[in-house]
Amino acid sequence: MALAAGKSLVVVDEAYIEFNPGSTVAGWLADYPHLVVLRTLSKAFALAGLRCGFTLANEPVIALLLKVIAPYPLSTPVADIAAQALDDTGIGTMREHVAEIAENRAWLMAALAPLPCVEQVFDSASNYVLVRFVAASNVFKTLWDQGIILRDQNKQPGLSGCLRITIGSRDEFQQVVAALRALSGTNE
C-alpha cells in the first residue's frame, strides 16, 4: 500500500464487512491518505434494489469525488431509506439479519459437507457459500429445473466446478439439501 502513496488510490471493497467486521481497513485511513473504502447497503442491509452505498476516505479524496459526481446523486426516497437503514433501529435490524444469515450459513455448510456430490465447501464470512461439486454443471441444471437458482462460478479463474449458494431461509436450504441428496442417491 505504501508503494501507491502519492501515485494512485487504493480502493477496498467492503461490501460484506458487516459479516466480518474485524476485517475492516477503515482504521487505516489515518495512516494512508490514498485509501478509499467502499461500503454498500445491498448485502447485510438487504437493500440491493436501493443501489446505494457510500465511500470512506480522507477529506482531499472526498473533495475530488465531489467534483465528478452528479450534484444530486441520490433521490430523496433513496436517501430517506438509507438514513433509516443507518439509524439505531436499522443497525439493530441489520445485526439481527446478519446473525440469522450466519446461523443459516453454518447449518447449510454442515449439511452440504458430507454429500457425495460435494467436493469442497469453502469457508465463508458473507451472505453466500461457495461449493465445489463433483459434477457442477449437472448439479446446476438439476437444481435449476426444480426452480432452485445457484450462481455458476465456473468461468471465474480457479473456481472450476464451483457454484455459489446465496444464504436464504432454513426452509429453502432444506429444499436444496434434499435435492442434492436425491441427486446423489442418498436420503439421509
Structure, explained:
By secondary structure, the chain is of the alpha+beta class. The protein has two domains: 2-86, Aspartate Aminotransferase, domain 2 (3-Layer(aba) Sandwich), CATH 3.40.640; 98-184, Aspartate Aminotransferase, domain 1, CATH 3.90.1150.10. Helix content is 37%, strand content 17%. The protein is built from five helices and seven strands; from the N terminus they run E-E-E-H-H-H-E-E-H-E-E-H. It has helices at residues 59-68, 76-85, 88-112, 136-145, 170-184, and strands at residues 10-13, 35-40, 53-57, 118-121, 128-133, 151-152, 162-166. The strands form two sheets. Strands 4-5-7-6 form a four-stranded antiparallel beta sheet. A hairpin with a 6-residue loop joins strand 4 (118-121) and strand 5. It is elongated and about 60 Å long. It starts with 9 loop residues before the first strand and ends with a helix. The model has no long low-confidence stretch (mean pLDDT 91).
Name its key features.
single chain, 188 residues, alpha+beta, Aspartate Aminotransferase, domain 2, Aspartate Aminotransferase, domain 1, 2 domains, 4-stranded antiparallel β-sheet, 5 helices, 7 strands, 37% helix, elongated
% residues in beta strands: 15-25%
Here the CATH topology of the largest domain equals: Aspartate Aminotransferase, domain 1
Q: What is the H level of CATH, i.e. the homologous superfamily of the largest domain?
A: Aspartate Aminotransferase, domain 1
Q: Mind describing the biggest β-sheet? A: 4 strands, antiparallel
Q: What's the number of helices? A: 5
Distance between the termini: 50 Å
Shape descriptor? elongated
CATH class of the largest domain: Alpha Beta
Quantity of strands, as a count? 7
Give the helix/strand class.
alpha+beta
Order of helices and strands: EEEHHHEEHEEH
Instruction: Kindly state the percentage of residues in helix.
Output: 25-40%
**Total domains, how many?**
2
Radius of gyration: 20 Å
Low-confidence stretches are none
Quick check: average pLDDT? 91
CATH architecture field of the largest domain: Alpha-Beta Complex
